Amino acid sequence: MNNNFNETMKFEPPKENVNEARDIILTVYEALEEKGYNPINQMIGYILSGDPTYITSYNNARSLIRKLERDELIEELLKYYLKNEKNEK
């Protein structure tokens, strides 16, 4: 670990299966919606806590979302948001 607090560390997540995170997020969203949950609230609960019980096991959604690290989910969501915000300006 870098103990020099005057330097910015560079974070580079693994770049395997570029569309995997996107596909998983969409599949989990649909499963939560089909079961009557608020997908946004449930996914936020999972991302913040790491507790997989926020995600339904319907359509294998819980197993799918656990294939990704939570930082990968945040990265995908942030990239999508910023890309769309840039295009609207």
UniProtKB/TrEMBL annotation:
Source domain of life: Bacteria
Listed Pfam families: IreB (PF06135)
Family: Belongs to the UPF0297 family.
Descriptive protein name: UPF0297 protein SAMN02745180_00601
Organism of derivation: Sporanaerobacter acetigenes DSM 13106
Lineage: Bacteria, Bacillati, Bacillota, Tissierellia, Tissierellales
